[in-house]
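Onboarding guide, step 5: your first structure request.
Type a short instruction followed by the sequence, for example:

Predict the 3D structure of this protein.
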Amino acid sequence: METDFWQERWKNGQIGFHQDETNAYLLNHWEKLNLKQGSLIFVPMAGKTKDILWLKEQGYRVLAIELSEQAVKAFFEENQLSFTIDEKKEFTIYCSDNIEFYCGNYFDLTTDLLADVKAVFDRASLIAMPPAMRKLYKLKINEILPQSAGILLVTMEYPQHQMDGPPFSVLENEVNELFSDKYEINLLEEFDVLAENPRFVDKGLTQMLEKVYIMQFSA
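The system replies with structure tokens like these:
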């Protein structure tokens, strides 16, 4: 999706993808990555997610990125966090205790910025992109992440012809096609969430699954 698309979504309050609570899959499965406290966690296309705050409260450092300045400012304001602002390359960086929140384009990230990342939580990035961009996303992940960094990934599966994305349907076979060259991929959980999301029923969906994967470097 073009950058203007997401800027308009935030400007117009079209943020049905935002969750007011910490993601349940993060709570249930994060410990499986076996990370030490103080590890740096990357949260791409973060919006104003509470997941950042939860990760910080567990003793991790968080590097998040979000295109919308409105979303970044809302994160700090709604959570009553003070911050300072720095500039680095293509980004404006909002810094708080153990949080660096980059405002800018994910595809402008460079290896040096993520050199210390130990893991990724992706709940809203891969499913935000149409197929061609998902391939670019995967290439960028391979480029910028240390090989040892694990990924906790959440996807959606639904009949794509029944609804235009985003969020897009990302099937299990595509996850494997995208990432199996570098990662060992394990499906942790799948859950039918259609009944909990009447807005998608109203759009005509007959099925919607969420799937959670853990992906770790395969030597």
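Each response can be followed by summary notes, for example: Residues 131-144 form the longest helix (14 residues).
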